[in-house]
Amino acid sequence: MQRILFSAFTLVLLLSAGVMACQNKPAATAIAPAENSKTLPELSMKTLSGNTVSLASFKGKKILLNLWASWCGPCREEMPGIEQLAASIDTSKAAIVLLSLDEDAADAIKFMQGKNLFKLSYMPMGDLPDLLNVPGIPASFFFDENGQLVKEISGAEDYNTPAIKALLQ
């Protein structure tokens, strides 16, 4: 009996730690106005297919840059909304960049396999720039066509809303 109680208690602790590892911020999220001095950072990335891309190559479009990982429950929960958003945007004017923070690209590939988001998913090459060093994920950054940060979202969000869509029109 003690062994069963100990095992159940250990499981609850491990699950709690997993959620805390994803997001160290309150569950309630808000779309906060960003400081105008923040700009699209320099970052080399690899597609999940292995091609090298620069984040700067998206400049000239409105950009949603989302930090996520396959092991993060809130990240996984918001993916269907991001998938719906991706299907509704004009890709000549806007881009969605899903930056996986998985340590092993195979984990990101396995999670994205068969999803319409596979082509929008990248792995960072090297350290993240200061702007993207956040205390928890998921985290999203919206940039205008000139590379100016216009909004930040900390925590999970429903991305299939008129307010979010307006940021990418």
Task: Give a verbal description of the structure.
It is a single chain. The protein has helices at residues 2-22, 73-88, 105-112, 162-167; strands at residues 31-33, 44-47, 52-54, 62-68, 94-100, 121-124, 139-143, 149-154. The longest helix has 21 residues, at 2-22. The protein is α+β, with helices and mostly antiparallel strands. Strands 1-8-7-4-5-6-2-3 form an eight-stranded mixed beta sheet, with helices on one face. Helices cover 30% and strands 23% of the residues.
**CATH topology grouping:** Glutaredoxin
CATH class, named: Alpha Beta
Beta-strand percent range: 15-25%
CATH level 4 superfamily: Glutaredoxin
List the helices and strands and how they pair.
Layout: H1 2-22, E1 31-33, E2 44-47, E3 52-54, E4 62-68, H2 73-88, E5 94-100, H3 105-112, E6 121-124, E7 139-143, E8 149-154, H4 162-167
Summed up, what is this model?
The protein is of the alpha+beta class and 169 residues long. Helix content is 30%, strand content 23%.
Key terms for this structure?
alpha+beta, about 30% helix, 8 strands, about 170 residues, Glutaredoxin, 4 helices
